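Let us work through a complete example step by step.
Step 1: write down the sequence.
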Amino acid sequence: MVSSPHEAMHRIFQEYPGLFSRVSDVLGVAFAPPTSATVMPTDLTENRPLERRVDTLLRIDTQDDETFLLAIEAQGKRDLDKPASWACYLSYLHTKYRLPPLLLVVCQDRATAEWASHQVPIGPRQWPALTLRPLVAGPHNMPVITDVAEARKDLALATLAAITHAGNPDIGAILKTLSAALREAPEAIVDPIVELTAQGLGNRPAAQQWRNLVAVDLSFYKSPLSEEIRDEGRAEGIARGILLLLAQAGIDVPDEARERIMSCSDLDTLSSWLLRAPAAMSIEDVFATK
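Step 2: predict the structure and record it as tokens.
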């Protein structure tokens, strides 16, 4: 059975595709920020009875006019069969899409992360034909963020960092920092981060700490006195959610359409646009009146 932490460690990149360029900076490998990111099918099954599925697959287009496939695997423990599977994924993706594939493995414990970081030569020792070289994000190299201002600069990175440090003795301080950083964020931004963090912590003791922090630090979102502020935050958050869905679908959004979405304050209108966005083929489909 797939665990909640497993889902959170790769699904966060679906929610925040731009997160990868910041994670790669942390890992010491430079990739330009994406101009677009498209969620790709994760089924790598061939016609033969052999089923293989990558956890998350994104097509990344960067500001440097570079395009590549980013395969993300959440790994909870050592698995001696995985390197062969990962090599198969990358070879298949390169063959199918004719784009350079990259593997990012996300872990929550140091031993698994260090194991996954090993380069795996494939072929005779005298001349390996291929070498598997995953990028690995885990507690051994992700930042420990305990400064609220730093967390606010990049909430997605702060969330992934908290998930990868779920077993850190200082996880309480890390989660307190994240919850404090979310206080001034719109509810539409807070909700997925709260969910992903809860998933990422799974059944660890820190999960209860997170629930307590959400109940206390983020009670602002339940206060009747803040309804007007909540509406403003919801409108901006929904608008950003619409733009994110359109970006994930690879739909071009002209500047005037972007301004129309971001300047709209009517929640009913924004909600109807949000419902249309996942099935839209063009920006006109989002604004359709029927």
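Step 3: interpret the result. The beta strands are 34-39, 56-62, 67-75, 101-107, 120-122, 130-132, 135-137.
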